[in-house]
Specification:
This protein has nine helices and eleven strands. It is of the alpha/beta class and 278 residues long. The chain has one domain. The strands form two sheets. The protein has a seven-stranded mixed beta sheet. Strands 3-2-1-5 form a four-stranded mixed beta sheet.
């Protein structure tokens, strides 16, 4: 945890892997991370991502004439040291102390996208470092977890909201749909980008992760400023050689598959030529 408690502004050399990766590759990594977290939550497992913990906890909703419905809902609990160090405020969500949490399984996450697991681990770590740097600089942030929800930071207030389909899928009681329709408090946990008062951004804009973009108020989203660290140019003016992101075993299997396809195509072409020569 201490690695995300920054005393000084983040140094560019700390983000060496992000410099080498394209934005689409960074988003691929975090898409796989998000899908991994959702799979674990479906199994009622608790996942520690380094700056906080995802879990599914029992809750209750008030519907009709004070009728109480039990539900199961996902929560995100920011790490206490991070919350205290950056003086952040969070909604009260409590994961039972006796609950065992597990860190991200980078090998499983990497396997889903055929990336080297070392690249995935470093990409996640450096993205979280960038997030910590934004907290240090008092920036407003929206961290998107595809298929799960949005972790937003506004003026030292941290709030995690979840997409409706995620809430419905993770609830094993079958009561979530009714709860979202009839309990106004439950509706507050649903992610509606740009729709709620909390979603308003400052004049300086909001940093969106994992795209590493700065969205400016009243500007065309297509004109957002890229914040992704850039790699240095080589002395001769060309771009520095990019790091290999794909798993070498996957590459070898792909080469074998392509070789077999070309061999099969060659045999088919030779057969056609032999037939035409008769």
């Amino acid at each position: 945890m201490n690695k995300y408690l920054l005393l000084n502004p983040l140094e560019p050399e700390k983000l060496s892997t992000l410099k080498e990766l394209r934005t689409i590759e960074i988003c691929q990594v975090w898409f796989s991370v998000s899908m991994y977290i959702r799979r674990q939550l479906l199994q009622k497992k608790v996942v520690d991502i380094g700056v906080g913990t995802f879990a599914v906890v029992p809750a209750s909703a008030i519907v009709g004439e004070d009728k109480v419905l039990p539900v199961e809902r996902p929560v995100f609990e920011l790490c206490r040291p991070l919350k205290k160090f950056y003086k952040l405020k969070c909604a009260k969500t409590k994961i039972p102390d006796k609950t065992l949490s597990a860190p991200l399984d980078f090998q499983e996450i990497a396997a889903d996208i055929h990336f080297r697991w070392e690249i995935v681990e470093q990409c996640v770590h450096e993205t979280l470092l960038f997030f910590a740097g934004a907290l240090l600089d008092n920036k407003e942030v929206e961290f998107f977890f595809q298929g799960i929800g949005i972790l937003a930071v506004r003026r030292k207030m941290v709030r995690m909201t979840f997409f409706a389909d995620c809430l419905l899928e993770l609830d094993a009681t079958g009561n979530m749909q009714t709860a979202l329709l009839e309990d106004s408090k439950m509706r507050r946990i649903v992610a509606f980008p740009g729709k709620s008062k909390f979603a308003r951004i400052s004049q300086e804009g909001v940093i969106t992760l994992p795209r590493f973009a700065l969205e400016i108020p009243d500007e065309d989203p297509a004109l957002s400023i890229s914040l992704k660290p850039r790699r240095e140019l080589a002395p001769w003016g060309g771009g520095a050689r990019r790091v290999s992101v794909l798993d070498p075993v996957f590459l070898a299997q792909k080469r074998v598959s392509m070789s077999k396809q070309m061999e099969k195509k060659g045999m088919q072409d030779n057969s056609k030529q032999a037939g035409q020569g008769r």
